[in-house]
Amino acid sequence: STQSTWALINGNSISYNYRGEDMDINFIEQNNIKLNIDMSLAFPWYGDYLPSDSTWSSCLSHNTNGSCYFNLSIPNLNSWYSKASTYGMHTIAFMSLLEFGFNVYPSSKPTDCSVSDIEVLMACQSTKALRSSYDNITLRDSTGQYITGTQGSVLVDPVFDEWSKTLQVMANSMFSKLSIDGIYIGGSNQLLQVNLHNKDDKTYYNGQPVGLLLYSFKKSVQNLRNVLPSDKALYFNPGSILRMDAVQYFDGIIVKLTDIKKLSGIVAWSGILTVNKPLLVGITPSQLTGNQLDVFFHTLLYAGAMPILLSNPSSYPSTINKYMTLFHYLQDKNWVLIPHVISWKSSISNSNVRANIFQTSSGVVVPLVFGNQSETVQVSISMTLNTCDTIYPGGKTQPKEIIQLSNDFQISVSLPEEGCAILICK
Questions:
Q1: Which of 26, 43, 70, 148 shows a CA-CA span of 20 to 30 A to 422?
Q2: Rounded to 5 degrees, what are φ and ψ at 354?
Q3: Where are any strands of DSSP class E within 58-207?
Q4: Could you give the 3-state DSSP secondary structure of residue 365?
Q5: How much is the pTM?
Q6: DSSP letter at 347?
Q7: Measured distance CA(244)–CA(44) in Å, rounded
Q8: What is the rounded distance in angstroms from the CA atom of residue 266 to the CA atom of residue 350?
Q9: pLDDT (tens digit, 9 = 90+) per residue, 174-220?
């Protein structure tokens, strides 16, 4: 399924959360954007309780005057996704793996669902479903209270068959109702509260056993992958937890950051997990001040990752455009893990320049990053090469001379103002 996934983001995978009115058509067309990563439909926080009637609304956020900013209904979502499709974009939508419900009531509150407000109705109906079907698999603290997640959801342990089956039902419901090309599921940072170091066969929260979360994670993902249509993509947003042997069931990994200080560590870790699969990384615009924009894009190029814009492109520095063309060359990348296959030498002492090497359908791709303006880097590659071109930020291309020394092929590159470039060799 990896091949179909790369086809899904053919072009740049640079995306932002499209929800109707904030689509920047010029940016999409100029940068060949193919993927819309949408957060507006939070299955199963809403699940089948999302209204099918467009006159009913549910708000994930409100305007300052209190009016609804996003009118969430099946018809409205499909109209947004259809518009994205008009401009060549595919949509994958979010589905929570370990959470259920929306503003779930405390156990002492009765569930009288004869209300007209859609948000109250969804909260009531999801609470009623939770109590009737999933109460015995919820995670609770030492006082017996629910361990809650996002937007009043309740954490559940997917080790139980009834929840694994529910995930399958939710996924099939999404595909039947929405014009989407895949889903991505999230881990839960609340799992960091669980002590995973006990010697017995259970994990604990506040001294109470809560089940084998890490073990059941793989089982749930495997079951979900097995029931998804073969042409639908399955991505994962790991948060802080992921079994490495579960990666085989995902078409790629999506990482969303709010702190650029965590960028290098998370990207390095995720890069190891996605040797030949897409790794998509997003960060909030507020983190990209000063030289952090360059740090962000250099880090992604180095890891063979693709950028995601977590809000409208106009929220980011205008200089993002100069990097866009470089990521096209990382399509269908496969990290080359041959020992000593690449080395490099800089013209200046104490250089921070770094290089990596990938095999793609375009040829051998070598990102050169974290350098300085006018720094010359001599790259040696232990693979047979016939031609090499340097691609600079902004898209300028320059053919390069190749010098063969024994089994090494050497290319000299002078870095531009941005301190980075990509070598494409065949």
A1: 26
A2: -130, 155
A3: 90-96, 99-100, 154-155, 182-186, 203-205
A4: strand
A5: 0.83
A6: S
A7: 25
A8: 26
A9: 888 888 888 887 655 544 444 444 445 555 555 555 544 555 667 77
